[in-house]
Amino acid sequence: MPERQPHDLAGPAEGQDGVLSDEDIYARLYTAIARQQLPPGTRLREDEIRQIFGVSRARIRTVFSRLAHTGIVTLEPNRGASVTRPSVKEAREVFAARRAIEGTIAREAVQHATKRDIARMRDHLMRERDADNRRDRTGMIRLSGEFHLLIAEIADNELLRRFLADLITRESLVILTYEQPGRPSCSNHEHEHILEAFARGDAEGAAKLMIEHLDAIEERLDFGDRQRSEIDLATILRGSAES
Length: 243
What we know:
With 243 residues, this protein is mostly helical.
């Protein structure tokens, strides 16, 4: 069974007896990480999360193993689980993988795009501009990823969309780890240029702009250390059921 992605979730529901399934717990943790509520390096203490969800340690370990398989959680002997803090090498690999597929995705999307698709892209960019005006950093990271996933959806290639969704979640951890203060990594102006290529039906131009956009994001990152603040896991994970 393929892993559920945040954009596929309407929010996990509890069973009739009020007990969460392993799939529900997995979805809440994955979604909290994908939405940047749990930043890189956050310790996922087994006992604390067991109490939050009211389940056994064995079930939490099973969920942690699934999350580790996706690459967004790291398991270390004698230290337990934490949200993955990508190394510089891993960050570079994420961008290399995205460049390898997103030119193809953009090219195919232009060929499939309808007037309605173009309108959806314009509406999305309006939301990006609003988040940018409000200096909503986490909102901008999330919306940027969603813009790329929208293009993958328009391309109508489900395999590439799923692969890209995983890469975007990993990239969000890269950005939260290495983005320079006061210098957002993703520019909605670059997204607007990509949209213009879509509007004129320029598949090759859109592919070229997409690669340049990914290059620019990587170049704006600062691959140094960042300080982390304390995270209230209970508030985030219990609240995710209502989001």
